[in-house]
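Good morning,

Attaching, inline, the backbone tokens for the sequence recovery test we're adding to the shared suite. The designed sequence is right after.
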């Protein structure tokens, strides 16, 4: 692993440069699990922007457990993300699942997400490492920290220094109350092992909207550089991950709570 100074990842968004890193305010990435239609993605973008988020998330290509579940609108969702970027000024983060889609995703995304299920898809890691857009690398649901850092190393070694590490919960023995176990201990652990910026995703980390605010506050208190939070205008009707999605109103309140903790926006 590389040691030394904390690195920062600078991303140009329509509203200005956003910096991910230890010496900058916490960056909040918010938005729905999936891009469903133009009205919902634009509305969500505007509402999370008004609340203080600087990035919009939203899946166009979705890694669903069941092949019969909603798979994302694909290329047409990328156009909707571009429209939401334009309407809100937010940077865009969206997932690549297949290297064949990388060029068209990189055209509209400001940061490219590699999901938990692809953390050790080494050919995909080499390809996102060989292009210039920053990469958000989610921790595999059963990945050790060393495996995660080595996956990041694939991207760095391919020539892309702009990698952000995202903890999104791991598999443990109890899935009755929470979807995953959010491993917040990675924050000090990663600080001691790597210079790369850290993101915490309490939405996938817990799977329940009611647990998300507490874990967001805890992550900021523990020193995370950024948060990823799922927000949907009508969680009960969401095509994916509704139970873990905050309403825009609850998100707005969370942003106010976070500003009290310290390093937050
Ligand atoms: C997501 O961010 O929507 C997602 C699918 O996350 P993960 O890869 O962490 O499951
Ligand atoms: Mn999701």
């Amino acid at each position: 692993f590389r040691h030394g100074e904390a690195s920062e990842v600078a991303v140009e968004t329509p509203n200005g440069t956003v910096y991910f890193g230890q010496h900058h305010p916490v960056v909040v990435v918010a938005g729905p699990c999936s891009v469903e239609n133009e009205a919902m993605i634009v509305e969500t973008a505007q509402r999370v922007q008004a609340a203080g988020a600087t990035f919009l998330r939203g899946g166009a290509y979705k890694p669903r457990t069941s092949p019969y579940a909603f798979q994302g609108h694909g290329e047409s969702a990328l156009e909707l993300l571009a429209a939401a970027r334009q309407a809100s000024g937010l940077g865009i983060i969206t997932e690549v699942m297949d290297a064949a889609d990388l060029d068209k995703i990189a055209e509209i995304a400001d940061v490219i997400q590699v999901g938990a299920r692809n953390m050790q898809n080494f050919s995909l890691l080499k390809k996102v490492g060989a292009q210039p857009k920053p990469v958000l690398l989610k921790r595999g649901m059963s990945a050790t920290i060393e495996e995660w850092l080595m996956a990041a190393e694939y991207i760095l070694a391919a020539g892309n220094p702009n990698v952000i590490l995202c903890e999104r919960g791991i598999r443990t023995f109890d899935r009755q109350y929470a979807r995953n176990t959010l491993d917040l201990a990675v924050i000090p652990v990663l600080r001691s092992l790597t210079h790369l910026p850290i993101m915490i995703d309490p939405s996938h980390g817990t799977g329940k909207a009611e647990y998300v605010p507490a874990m967001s506050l805890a992550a900021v208190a523990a020193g995370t550089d950024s948060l990823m939070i799922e927000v949907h205008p009508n969680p009960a009707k969401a095509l994916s991950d509704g139970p873990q999605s905050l309403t825009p109103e609850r998100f707005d309140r969370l942003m106010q709570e976070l500003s009290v903790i310290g390093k937050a926006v």
